[in-house]
Predict the structure.
Amino acid sequence: PFPCGEQSDLTIFRGGNEDTAIEDRDKAALYFHLPKDKRVAGDSAYAGEPERVIVTLPEMEKTHIKWLGRLKARGETLHARLKNFRVLGTRFRHGKGTQDKMKRHQMATESV
C-alpha cells in the first residue's frame, strides 16, 4: 500500500510523522492497534517510539540483545517464507465458500 522509499517505516507505523497531531494520524496504523501495555520489537529505525517499540541499545545486557536478535530473525524468517511460497503474492484459489477459504488460507499461512 505504500510505495518504496516514499515514507519511513516509523511514519507508516505511527500513521503520520511526528509533526502530525495524533488526532490527524491514520487510525489504521499499527500504532493504534497495539494495546497500551504491549510493545513490539523493531530495528533502529523505530528508536523514535520507545514507549511502543523495543530496539537494541548498547547499554542492554548481552542476554537481552541476543534475545532481541533471535526475535527479529524469527520475523525476518516469516517474511522470507511468505515471499518464497508466494502466500501473499498470488490469489488464493482453494476451498469452497468464504468460511472454507478463510480456514484453508489460515492453515496455509500458519504452515509457513
